[in-house]
Amino acid sequence: MAAPTPIVLDVDTGIDDACALLLAGLHPGLDLRAVTCVGGNAPLPQVVSNTLAVLHTAGRDDVPVAAGAERPLLAEPHDARHVHGSDGLADLDWPRSPHAPDERHAIELLRDVLRAAAGAGERVTVVPLAPMTNIALLLRAYPDVAAGIAEICFMGGAANVGNATASAEFNVFHDPEAAAVVIDACTDLDIPIRMYGLDVFYRPAVTREQAQRLIDADPTGPAGLAGRLIRFQCDRFAADSGTIGDAGAVCAVIAPEALTTRRLPVRIELGGTWSRGRTVVDLRDWTGDLAHDPHGQANTRVEVALDVDADAYVDLWLDTLLRGTP
What we know:
- The protein has one domain (5-323): Alpha-Beta Complex (Inosine-uridine Nucleoside N-ribohydrolase, Chain A), CATH 3.90.245.
- The protein is built from 13 helices and eleven strands.
- The chain has helices at 15-26, 44-57, 81-84, 106-119, 133-141, 170-174, 176-189, 198-201, 208-217, 222-236, 247-254, 287-291, 310-323, and strands at 5-11, 30-37, 65-67, 124-128, 149-155, 193-196, 205-207, 241-243, 259-268, 279-281, 301-308.
- Strands 3-2-1-4-5-6-11-9-10 form a nine-stranded mixed β-sheet, sandwiched between helices. A two-stranded antiparallel sheet has the order 7-8.
């Protein structure tokens, strides 16, 4: 049996971040070594509290959690509590963790984990599920950590659609400068980077019936929390199902064969009035257009997710949560 994949998550917990944390904390194929927090879906203190609560529910108080950037590098912050509830965690009044976060800043925790991995001859998969402010700061402040990174698999962006605006996905829109820095740094430091964006994000969806099965299996445990998070989405959007969202990016680490990607040039739009925060994914295949493009083609290339076996990821997520019940 293969050794578990070392992994760290960077989150702005968030309903779907919680779904991802439960998967990463419970799946036997992953070795969750740290979780870092950034302001995004909710303000940073709430994100930290939510993250500790989810890990406590999963029985993973051993995982260090650190607070990072409160706000984007340049932009004004805009939270998404209209999606995630006033507390960012579906307003469930879920029990809080008795544990405190790590005293280190998020980028110091990431630095230490990644340097330790490199020193032991290991590489860790970094999974940002939030605005990439922490990751941008990390890679610019401590570029040597690249020696401990297997890849960066981030939830963000899109080739074709937006949600925060008609052009931009929320995580990239919240801090587009950080996303641009990360993609550029990965090119400079030769770090593989994968984008799990809106083109696939909504497709792995859990039905109300499946959510109720989770709640019934373990009402106060990780399955019960997961089921209630899905049920909240169904209620908020008057839908019959809710997405596992960010958890899909964790699924992509566990089961990459269920994800179809293409290595494509990507730029982040930092200026446009209507398009700021858009991930400009270059899908052109005719050299005539490329030869006449005054901008040229981006030299920053990303493995962009364009299709997913949604049923496979839903089954993976459900099976992990149900296996984690008493």
